[in-house]
Amino acid sequence: MDLDKYFKKAELIPAIVQEKGTGEVLMLAYMNRESMQKTLETGYTWFFSRSRQELWNKGATSGHLQKVVSIMGDCDDDTLLVTVEQTGPACHTGSKSCFFNKIV
Hints:
This protein is mainly beta.
């Protein structure tokens, strides 16, 4: 698979992570070419940490892994929708989803 088309605009691409069973949006993270390649190779999510400037495998320390079911690119090839089977909570706070702070 040619990954270049996803990284024409920027070195990082947003990846929206969604739970397969419920359709719930679990989190948003960023992938670079290397983390996307590792995700495709391993079948588990890998991301690039903007704050630490390094790759991270979701769940490597917590055990709350994300098994990839599918990856879809959007119409502009600049955002990914990653559908996963989530083990445990997705958020580092212990919440199932990172989206729990209601604004409106």
